[in-house]
Every structure is written in structure tokens, then in C-alpha cells.
Amino acid sequence: MAQGFPESERIRNQTGGSTGSPLQFLVDRERLDARLAATERHNEWAGLRPGDWCAYLWGARLDQISTATLRDRLRNELLYRRVELNTSQITAEGLSRFTDAVRRKRPRFLIAYAYSAHLFAEHVIKEGIGDITFDAMITTAEVLMPETRRLLEKTFGGRVFNRYGCREVSIIASECDQHNGMHVHSESLLVEIEPDPSLPDGLGRILVTDLRNLSMPLIRYEIGDVAAWSKTAACPCGRGLPLLDDVRGRTTDFLIMPDGSRISGPSLTLVVADMSEVSQVQFVQNSEQSITLRVVPGVGYGEATRAELRKRLDLYLRGRAALDIQEAPPIASEASGKYRFVVNASEIK
């Protein structure tokens, strides 16, 4: 922490602690302005401008506004123009209320946790609702799976603009209208990818240095996420900012095998993406030798489904870990509103 920095010029904050390790940190007031500018810039890339109505599927408790007063409601109606649903409390009733609000206000944009947007699209399809469209959708906070991008664009008509960041440094990288990767916000951040031979596909650990937060500098800060640089030499948009490939998830979103290699949990969900008999999945790491797949059954689920799941996943596990398949009730997002594809057995209550 910087010495002699005026207390009045820095604000205390903390991470959501979705992986069990919340961090308290300080942010310069001036740095908050740069963070807001980065957010507004990416919003503009997607076509969203101040004053536009926007639907929000958001859930971090630290982000929530307390019980709204009349003044809050008027401010939202005239200035912020948000239609919101707390994603840590997603229910069929909540999605229905959110849907009704979206139909009333007709926002042209959606900003959402990736998996929460997926659930919203599934709800709209299930209810046979065909009159909700968005010009663009900004997804963030969770790994954006290819099938989720396809589902959102097919259901709502607009393009998806992926955004990557964290509470400690705000937006790290974001997607432009060329969709060739995510531009690093290098005006404020230095991003490095540390090679890690235990990770597949040339992935490495992301290290971030915040160049603008002077009161509590974060230098080569390891967030816990993994990614790779984009193979695209230069984006046709002409912005000239470094390009990240889509971030593959947190290091805790990987299954660890006995030989030290790792398998991406979110990527494994692609294995079941075409199985209508499977509604939801989550991998539980019991040990390096034992994996449990929690399955929320869909229509037609049965022994044949279990056999097909085992057949497909065995191609990845290759006998290195025992696989136990268990049926489960609907798996809720965490208190932060984020969905975990991979959890440790000790986290299951």
C-alpha cells in the first residue's frame, strides 16, 4: 500500500469471493473514473450509449442496490434506465417478472452473466415468447461457451460482445464488432500470460498490473484465470490493442488428473451440449482419482443417457480418474450469482 496517499482519495472494496478467497483492496477515486470510461467504451462498441434502456442479469451482492426509494426509482427511470434481475435468486417466477419488465420497457441491450443469459434464453424458448429481441448482448463474469453464444444470438437476434474483467482491476479485455478475440485495455493495464505446461492447448496463467491505481498497486497480480493470446495478427477494426483469445476460465474450473494435467470443466460441457436429455451438469472433484458428474435430468433421461455420458467423457478422462454419475436437483448459482462448472467436493453441502 502506498504511503502518504490521502485516505479521502481512495475507496475500500473487495472481491466477491466466488472461489472462497475474498480479497480486500483499495481503489483510487481517480482510477474509478478510468474504470467507468473503460466500461462505457466497450458499451459503445456494442452500440449501447448512455440513456439507452438496458436489461441486466447481475448478481454480485456487493453490486446490489438496497431497497429502492422513490428518488432511486426516478433516477433509474430518467438516467440509468435498467431492467434488473438478481441472478443469485433466479427462479421461474423471477424470470417471468423479468420477462414482463423487459416487454414493458423494450430495452435494446442486455448485459448479463453468461450462464444467467443462457437460462433467460431457455426460459423465453420454453414459454414460447418470440417478441423479445436485443440489438446486442454483453456477456461477462463467466466463461462464455460457444453454444451459449449461439443460443443467445438465435433467440434474441443481436450479436454477443464478450467482456472479461474482475473487481480488482475492472475490465481487462473486451470484444469489438469484428469478434476476433478480446482487446486488452492496455491504456490502464499490463497483461501477461505466464506459460504453464500443466495447462492444455498452450494456455497460461493471466497476470495483470494496474498502471493507474497508485494507492494500492497490483503488480503482476495473478487473478486465477487462464487464457491464450489470439492467433489473429491484427484486428480489422484498426484499434491496435493486443488481442486475447476467449478466456477459458479460472484455474479452479479445471479438473486435475493424477498426472498433473488439467481438463477444462466448461469445455467438457460441450460434450453434453447436444443431449436434450441433460438439463444441467456440474463436475465435482473428489480427488485426483475420483470425479463426480452431477446431472440434472431432462426429458427422456435414463440408463441410455448415463451410458452415453460415460462413453463421451471416458474419451477425456482416459481411465485416469473414476467417474461417478449422479442425478441432482437443479443446481443453483452461487450467492454471487455466478455458476461454477467445477467445484471441490468439500464445497458441496
- The CATH topology of the largest domain is given as Rossmann fold
Bulk shape:
globular
Number of domains as seen in the coordinates? 2
CATH superfamily of the largest domain: ANL, N-terminal domain
Helix content: 10-25%
* CATH architecture type of the largest domain: 3-Layer(aba) Sandwich
Mean pLDDT comes to: 87
CATH class of the largest domain: Alpha Beta
Percentage of β-strand residues: 25-35%
Strand order of the largest sheet: 4-3-5-6-7-8-9-13
Query: Any low-confidence stretches, pLDDT <50, length ≥5?
Result: 17-22, 60-65
How would you describe this structure in keywords?
single chain, about 350 residues, alpha/beta, Rossmann fold, 2 domains, four-stranded antiparallel beta sheet, 7 helices
SSE blueprint:
Layout: E1 10-14, E2 24-28, H1 29-45, E3 54-58, H2 70-80, E4 82-86, H3 92-105, E5 109-113, H4 114-126, E6 136-140, H5 146-156, E7 159-166, E8 170-175, E9 182-184, E10 189-195, E11 204-210, E12 221-227, E13 243-244, E14 249-250, E15 254-256, E16 262-264, H6 265-268, E17 278-287, E18 290-297, H7 303-317, E19 322-327, E20 342-344
Helix pairs in contact: 4-5
How would you characterize this protein structure?
This protein has 349 residues and is of the alpha/beta class. The protein has 2 domains: 7-182, Rossmann fold (3-Layer(aba) Sandwich); 253-347, ANL, C-terminal domain (GMP Synthetase, Chain A, domain 3, 2-Layer Sandwich), CATH 3.30.300. Helices cover 24% and strands 30% of the residues. It is built from 7 helices and 20 strands. Strands 4-3-5-6-7-8-9-13 form an 8-stranded mixed β-sheet, sandwiched between helices. A 4-stranded antiparallel β-sheet has the order 10-11-12-14, with no helix packed on it. Strands 19-18-17-20 form a 4-stranded mixed β-sheet, covered by helices on one side. β8 (170-175) and β9 form a beta hairpin. α4 (114-126) crosses α5 (146-156). The longest helix is centred in the first third of the chain and has 17 residues, at 29-45. It is globular. The two termini are 37 Å apart. Residues 17-22 and 60-65 have low confidence and may be disordered.
